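Side project, low priority. Logging it here so it doesn't get lost.
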Amino acid sequence: MEVTYDVAIAGGGPAGCAAAITAARAGKRTVLFERGAYPRHRVCGEFISAEAHDVLLSLLGNRHPLLCDPPRITRARMFSERNSIEFELDHPGWSISRCDLDFALWEVAKQSGVECVQQSVDAIEREVNGFAVRLGSQALGATTVINASGRWSNLRRPFVDTGPRWIGIKAYFTGEQAPPSADLYFFQGGYCGVQPISKTHLNASAMVRSDVAKTIDEVFAGHPNLWLRSRAWERTTEVITTSPLVHVTPEPVTDGVLNAGDAAAFIDPFVGDGISLALRSGVLAGQSASAGEYEVTYFQQFGKAFRAAGLARRLVQSPTVHALAAFAFRSQSLKRWALKRTRGI
């Protein structure tokens, strides 16, 4: 098949748009496929860690309205049923709505010369000189293909879900002047994150076992302090859900296709790296000259984040460990050490 594009990308979220913008600006003929329509909400904590700020500024431009004065998250607070831990963030994060962020990246991709197509990719097939991208009865050729179509992409080997079923639940609320912090409420079978997304609204996003909660009110009831806090809130968006959420070893390349964002692996939301990893892995995929180069660099840049997230996941599931941590992290030096070990800056 004659190659039509230098780069074809499936999935128009942060990872796919970052890859498309990067490839197009490098002079590559690029096509980006997205089956959904913008703007739209996604289940997401909407915390953009400092590691990704320069990347986002480069992609959108420092004069973009979203980046002029985004809400700054200056600390993180973690609550179990009996204990709490508070961290001051030396490098504040940003809070930006995924609805706004995804649409902004999609529009910049179009402005950068990317051919943006709202259509689903059905299959990717290896060819002698590249790939055939199947769109129903139609096929086009590409030298490089990037899969950024999410956790349950039909374009890579399926994840094996052998444990309890985890779901994501999210909605926006108003009703309080939320502090500039990312607040994490842990309870048996899940957790919920709360942070401001504007002066008047906050985002509540949870990851929970389906046998523990299936509604946002059931999530709030999982933690007594969160339940009391949420009584003053008024919901301003529909409740959206996603499932299942499964943690697997990262797979940055599948049969020569570069996987970016959640298509490569899903990281624990409570570590605050989801959007950062999507943007940074998308840029890396758009820059990479080969699948081998991408895979090696992917693990060099992001392997530490997944290892730290896996360790933290095991620790927060233990009430005993959480109580010990609450006592130990009274030390400011230990807090700084922990942040340095788990962040990329």
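Brief comment: Residues 133 and 266 are 25 Å apart (CA to CA).
Revisit when time allows.
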